[in-house]
């Protein structure tokens, strides 16, 4: 009896305020899309950082015969220079920062090179002699990379020191700024959504004044009187959340997986449609919770006990 | 069953109380007429029984429970044991007679099987067994009130409050409604009926409580509508003049003369002479009653009137809007 009655009331209520309900759905959907976008961007940043931690973060390339840097004026790095780098990495100054490092000899470098450009005709033109010796360093703390880079940059026999974190920094920056922007918009839209829900509930209450008065009179419990209104707002918000998830799917499928990932590299872009598995329920739950909270406030104002 | 213990209710600070120092008890199974001009506190009294409003001072007991100590989540339980009937019926216009009664059961979670048994039983009791499928506007006023009474009684409450239940009905229909209320009373329910219906009170000869300016001025065990008592407003013995109550206090020497318990006593002539307006005719008093209706409907009023209806009321009665303003 109860469940059926409440369900009927929800549908009646939704239908009676259909235009308000549609606007609630649209505003909720748009704001939740922004929330979802922000969340996915943060997830991308976190993925990227953890990849950096796993991989070598700083790479020191010693001079090869083809290096043009000023520090490579003496041609390819000598064994003494290689040894001094090795010593420095194991020395007292740097060892606190360095978690581990690996050395890549010229032969290994050639192997990597040949693998990377397999099938290209120019590969066979190079021998091990042409390749640089390199050190791949994993740091204790990725944020300390600047110190290590500083230490080796410009030393004799050192061609180039690359810092992956630095290379990724602009990208992470862009993502962080975009997240801020998306979340800012999301907050504004969510405020609008909450106010819309409150207004819708108020109208719904006004439209059912007679029923409410009689229910109060014959002793229906407060929860019973309020539940249809609460669920009415929640249903609208949940529909909004589902639409938001749909929009995110479109974005992830066509923009991220269809364009960004192939362009920027599959290793870099880790978010994808699979992430909707956690994002969609999160958005729907967020929509429902916010709308119920807004409804409770609204009901307390417009529906006295 | 219902006991008011020195209850005062002031709606707004500094204003004259709607109910003042009310000390009265209605016992189980009683049939009580509550009479008095509107604004005399009858509706406030009923609202306090329902815990629609809380007294400013004093305590209200219903079925042995102190209402001021009743937590708000228990109020619905209290109201399930109290039926309420209004002058304007307050049926849901989109629901049939059957559905209106069903609604009162459904919203408190009565199992469907019980509903199917109780609703036809109630329709039969109020004599509308063949009109269950009609919408309120397809029923006459008397029939609508019967449905309203069925809705109020379907839970078998131990108290039935009726706020001018016959106010909108013609005398013969009103008498039928009164019979129905009497029947309900005979089944053991305490009935408190606020009314301006002279013939109803005179016919039943039950307990009559008259209120003037928020105070009980008369409490007769087997009374009629009018009384020779000098404090009675509805009998035309005292002007209904609550705004000038300060000038004509109820505890005026001339009004007091140990009248209580002696309804046969002739009013003292001095009472009349001290009141310049007491030579009002009965017709004047009746006119007052007519005007009182919009104000007397104040229980749950603001919750009930939707925009269209409010507009209709305003169109019909230019004074209704003002009355509403005053009530807030």
Describe, in plain words, how this protein is organized in 3D.
The complex is a heterodimer of chains A (305) and B (328). Chain A has nine helices and four strands, in the order H-H-E-H-E-H-E-H-E-H-H-H-H. In chain A, helix 1 packs across helix 8, helix 2 (18-54) packs antiparallel against helix 6 (164-207) and helix 6 runs parallel beside helix 9. A four-stranded antiparallel β-sheet of chain A has the order 2-3-1-4. Chain A folds into two domains: 2-52 and 169-302, no CATH class; 54-164, 2-Layer Sandwich (Alpha-Beta Plaits). Chain A has helices at 2-16, 18-54, 79-90, 106-116, 145-152, 164-207, 209-218, 222-264, 276-302; strands at 58-62, 98-104, 134-139, 158-163. Chain B starts with a strand and ends with a helix. Chain A binds chain B through residues 1-2, 5, 206-207, 209-222, 224-225, 305, and chain B through 50, 72-73, 75-82, 84, 90, 92-93, 103-104, 106-112, 115, 151-152, 155, 300, 303-307.
* Overall tally of structural domains of chain B: 3
- Sheet-strand content of chain B, in percent, reads 15-25%
The geometry of chain A reads as: elongated
CATH homology superfamily of the largest domain in chain B: P-loop containing nucleotide triphosphate hydrolases
Alpha-carbon distance between the termini of chain A?
Answer: 23 Å
List the defining traits of the structure above.
heterodimer; A: 305 residues; alpha+beta; 4-stranded antiparallel sheet; 9 helices; B: 328 residues; alpha/beta; 3 domains; 6-stranded mixed sheet; globular; FtsX (chain A); transmembrane helix (chain A)
Brief summary:
The complex is a heterodimer of chains A (305) and B (328). Chain A is 68% helix and 8% strand. Chain A is built from 9 helices and 4 strands.
């Amino acid at each position: 009896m109860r469940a059926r009655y409440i369900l009927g009331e929800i549908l009646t209520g939704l239908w009676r305020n259909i235009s308000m309900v549609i606007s609630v759905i649209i505003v909720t959907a748009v704001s939740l899309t922004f929330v979802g976008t922000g969340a996915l961007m943060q997830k991308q940043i976190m993925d990227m950082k953890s990849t950096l931690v796993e991989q070598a973060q700083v790479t020191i390339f010693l001079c090869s015969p083809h290096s043009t840097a000023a520090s490579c004026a003496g041609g390819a790095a000598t064994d003494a220079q290689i040894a001094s780098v090795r010593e420095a990495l194991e020395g007292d100054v740097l060892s606190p920062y360095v978690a581990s490092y690996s050395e890549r000899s010229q032969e290994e470098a050639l192997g990597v090179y040949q693998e990377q450009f397999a099938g290209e005709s120019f590969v066979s033109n190079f021998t091990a002699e042409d390749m640089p010796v390199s050190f791949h360093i994993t740091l204790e703390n990725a944020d300390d990379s600047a110190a290590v880079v500083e230490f080796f940059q410009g030393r004799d026999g050192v061609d180039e020191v690359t810092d992956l974190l630095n290379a990724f920094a602009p990208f992470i920056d862009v993502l962080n700024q975009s997240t801020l922007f998306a979340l800012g918009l999301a907050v504004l839209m969510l405020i609008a959504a909450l106010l819309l829900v409150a207004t819708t509930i108020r109208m719904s209450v006004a439209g059912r004044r007679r029923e409410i008065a009689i229910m109060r009179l014959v002793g229906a419990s407060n929860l019973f009187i309020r539940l249809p209104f609460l669920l009415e707002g929640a249903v609208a918000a949940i529909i909004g959340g589902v639409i938001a998830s749909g929009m995110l799917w479109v974005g992830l499928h066509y923009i991220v997986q269809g364009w960004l990932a192939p362009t920027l590299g599959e290793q870099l872009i880790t978010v994808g449609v699979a992430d909707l598995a956690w994002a969609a329920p999160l958005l729907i739950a967020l929509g429902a919770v916010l709308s119920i909270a807004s409804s409770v406030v609204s009901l307390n104002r417009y529906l006295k006990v | 069953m219902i006991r008011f213990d020195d209850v005062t209710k002031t709606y707004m600070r500094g204003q004259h109380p709607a109910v003042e120092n009310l000390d009265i008890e209605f016992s189980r199974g009683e049939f009580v007429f509550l009479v008095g001009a509107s604004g005399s506190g009858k509706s406030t009294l009923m609202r306090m029984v329902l815990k629609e409003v809380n007294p400013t001072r004093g305590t209200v007991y219903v079925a042995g429970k102190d209402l001021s100590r009743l937590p708000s989540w228990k109020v619905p339980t209290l109201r399930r044991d109290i039926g309420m009937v209004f002058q304007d019926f307050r049926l849901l216009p989109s629901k049939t007679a059957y559905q209106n009664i069903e609604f009162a059961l459904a919203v408190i979670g009565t199992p469907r099987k019980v509903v199917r048994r109780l609703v036809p039983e109630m329709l039969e009791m109020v004599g509308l067994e063949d009109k269950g499928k009609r919408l309120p506007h397809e029923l006459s006023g008397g029939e609508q009130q019967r449905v309203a009474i069925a809705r109020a009684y379907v839970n078998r409450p131990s108290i039935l409050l009726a706020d001018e239940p016959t106010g909108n009905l013609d005398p013969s229909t009103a008498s039928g409604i009164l019979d129905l209320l009497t029947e309900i009373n005979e089944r053991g329910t305490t009935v408190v009926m606020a009314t301006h219906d002279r013939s109803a009170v005179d016919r039943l000869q039950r307990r009559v409580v008259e209120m003037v300016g928020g105070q009980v001025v008369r409490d007769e065990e087997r009374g009629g509508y009018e009384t020779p008592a000098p404090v009675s407003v509805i009998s035309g013995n005292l002007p209904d003049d609550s705004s000038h109550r300060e000038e004509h206090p109820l505890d005026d020497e001339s009004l007091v003369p140990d009248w209580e318990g002696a309804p046969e006593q002739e009013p003292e002539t001095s009472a009349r002479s001290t009141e310049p307006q007491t030579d009002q005719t009965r017709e004047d008093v009746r006119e007052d009653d007519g005007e009182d209706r919009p104000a007397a409907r104040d229980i749950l009023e603001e919750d009930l009137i939707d925009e269209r209806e409010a507009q209709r009321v305003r169109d019909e009665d230019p004074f209704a809007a003002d009355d509403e303003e005053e009530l807030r």
